[in-house]
User: What shape does this take?
Amino acid sequence: MEFLKTQSRNAAIEGYIKKLVSRIDFEEIPLKNSVGRIVSLDQIASFDIPGFSRSIVDGYICVSGMTSGAGPGNPIPFTYGGEIQMGESLKDTYDSDKVYYIPTGAPIPKGFDAVVMIENTEKVNNTIYIEKSVFKGENIIYKGEDLKAGDKITEKGRVLRSVDIGAIASQGIESVSVYKKVKIAIIPTGKELKRAGEDIDAKSVYDVNSFMLKSLLDKFKYFETEIFRIIKDDEDELYGLIKDNYDKFDVFVISGGSSKGMRDITTRVIEKLGSPGILIHGIDMSPGKPTILSLCNNKIVFGAPGHPVSSYISVRFVMVPILNYFAGKTDIFEKPAGRGKLKADIPSKHGLDDFIRVIIEGEEIEPIFGKSGMVSTLSKSNGIIIAENEKEGLYKGEYVDYYGII
Amino acid sequence: MEFLKTQSRNAAIEGYIKKLVSRIDFEEIPLKNSVGRIVSLDQIASFDIPGFSRSIVDGYICVSGMTSGAGPGNPIPFTYGGEIQMGESLKDTYDSDKVYYIPTGAPIPKGFDAVVMIENTEKVNNTIYIEKSVFKGENIIYKGEDLKAGDKITEKGRVLRSVDIGAIASQGIESVSVYKKVKIAIIPTGKELKRAGEDIDAKSVYDVNSFMLKSLLDKFKYFETEIFRIIKDDEDELYGLIKDNYDKFDVFVISGGSSKGMRDITTRVIEKLGSPGILIHGIDMSPGKPTILSLCNNKIVFGAPGHPVSSYISVRFVMVPILNYFAGKTDIFEKPAGRGKLKADIPSKHGLDDFIRVIIEGEEIEPIFGKSGMVSTLSKSNGIIIAENEKEGLYKGEYVDYYGII
Assistant: This one.
């Protein structure tokens, strides 16, 4: 194996995805089940929304010019012409000297240009008193004002939100083309690991990482994960497990595979699996430095650190962006959840991305210092901040971006 | 039906949940599938993590006092005593005058109190030169330092995050008790509605809301949703549909049920379904005002507005907090995603919560003004801000909380 220099996080991610062929497989799924999936075709409106100009309030349809000067002290009387029904065809002619009751959503007949809200009117027998002047277009939404035929509703590569799904549904579409889910195998490794339910002794620990990583990855609806059995330190067993499942998965995460005890086994297994093999071994980040990124015949094989916190940081901030790219997502990097003000100085080494667990309260950010083996520094925190590469530290009072804990 | 005054959003939510019996049904599910679910029992550590004091780096175990004064220019020689294996039982005695190689995660033998990282040492034959002094406890995580037996890992009523699941897994637990999912029936109503696939004409629109609401609610893993057939304006059909499915669901959302055309039908159906019936009819918010909150024999029945934006705002900011309470969640109100600075003045009426769609870029927040019928004001936005009740408006340059679009 060729030993590679450690790289900056961005260089590692960009270098890796250059070698990776992004996924192109897609599937047609029901629109109602598509939230959180990545759309694989631009969604274009094929007709105007609304398809007809309509009222957005309950009130009386009128000619705006004729309400000029109307007010609570100066009601203007109009003859009541009748009622326009919701969802009914319009009659041929309406008399624009009269006003007509119109419910929210009903179509605007020709010759009228505003709706007075019912609250600003009074009905006495067959006369409607209008007590507020309205401007042209008031309380009307015009044909195509929401979406015009040809408008892009959402772009290929975007994760569908409920509001995008609403806009697509407005076009009468009931299924949508999305990229297939990325299938991820999580393989816990380490001879000190015990499976839940097994007895434990002073030399062993229960497997934390595969539960945590599966849960983290399952937050993304376009990933599909499965946890495999624990591999102690048996090279043939690890190789055999991956080979047996090679065709069923796109990604193999060897949890603990970059830790001291497993590193050599992981690298030999990757070599056997195919070329180009290991692309990045070691990233300038803390925690998460001993991360292995490899590619074997376009199967993605990651060696994740054994420490729970390192593992979480490495998977979330290195592997997920790569997997986003592979999954067909356009924006591969997670956007910060927000910005806040630091309550304390944070020392940081120049030349690496430092991930600090924090507690965010309102606008204030308090760092939690803890050893990278400590899962409690994560579970007690509600945010993460990054002292990036070129920074020597972050200072009390400084505003910084933060990420939530998921 | 008794007509009720409109209420403030908080009063409506608090008034409603006072009448509601919170869910107590729980189920035991595999821990690995529990992310996003609400835990129904406090999770307490039953033993210390780590269970033994161990090294958090690869290096040499030593007695800290004996490294005093060591530096790159002043290496201190020690006799190499051998290697401590990961996951192996410790030998009975180690000689504390010597140093021993220790990998990350391996146990610390008695008589030693620090680990020198391998980078700060040099091995020449059987001699290890230590080139950095270490303090007591350096690079060691002590028994129970991460979690102590009796520590609370997570509290009843919290939504499980991947990091909580990791902490629970450290205790060798493989299943967890969570509140059962809340089953929500979404019933689209309105005689102007067409189902996707049907032909459309100038007097009708495709059903947007049930797709959008299902997708919004599906973001919460503790909800389970189903969309029913469109009910035009037939009271008996709506009543029959709910009655037939009464025992299978906890919640019925009558989408469009508070809109003008359906309001009377919805209220009569709610009366027939049982007491106490309608609790709140109308909330001081914009959009979303014509929201109906009712309770029929502890079945939750909501009448949601017909406008897509009103519907989204009403469900997310009124119904979801109520459903969170019913689902067993402790923090029922959504926390803002972050804070940003307004790029423009926003007028707002005193006495109601005004929900404004915005575009957030970095720290800057730009409002999108649009009519409440327009679903595109939601799909083009990436955030929502609230001009609360007592505010007359928000001002350019002001810092305000924002919520993401989901």
